[in-house]
Amino acid sequence: MDSNIKHVPLRILILITTPKLSEKAVDMFRKGAVPIQYQWNAVGTASSEMIDILGLGTPDKRIIISILPKPFADDMLKKLKTELRIGAVNSGIAFTLPMSGVNNLIFRLLENLNGGEMQLSEAANRKDEIKMADMKYALVVAVVNQGYSEEVMDVAKKAGASGGTVVPGRRIGNQEAMGFWGMGIQEEKEMLFIIIENENKLKLMQAIGEHCGIHSEAKGLVVSLPIDSVIGLEEKR
Fold this sequence. Notes:
The protein has 8 helices and 11 strands. By secondary structure, the protein is α+β, with helices and mostly antiparallel strands. The protein has 2 domains: 6-133, Alpha-Beta Plaits; 134-227, Alpha-Beta Plaits, CATH 3.30.70.
């Protein structure tokens, strides 16, 4: 194997921005030959104060998610900041999350980004996980029954969060099993993305669990993921 080939970890890049800027971002990703992109419509939290803090200026949002090798994800964050001015007022936020692995097809697609001069590996991802505890921010994801996102955000704000993004969705699962775990049968759900300092993550998750957890009307589930890099958050604090 060529000794010049670099072994690199993977990142999930998430951009939350306005519809207008999302179109420019998609064009930027295409020009960069980014092979994997997903896009969703979303809405801001009910409080206009929250939306202003996030610098979006409007409740209408777009979420773009891509999977990239870390060097490409870092480079794309820089381009989003310098070329699209993500992080400025009414622009949005972008961040990356570590990944533990993907299937072989995605591996091959991503390795071709740089002409085979880098190699993705599970070992690189595992080594990268050691640094997760030192990460400053975390992404807390709460899934609740439709109509309870505002209540979750009220709880989140008291726990130290400054804003969030709501994505509508539907639950798909075994109804009998869901009933056994007390999750009810309502399919319409709302998924909230909330970014918070890592030191306040547990406090936030506990608060959501206590007020909007599985035994409440919201029937909420909450998980967290470490954030590797972020733009558009530090500038607003």
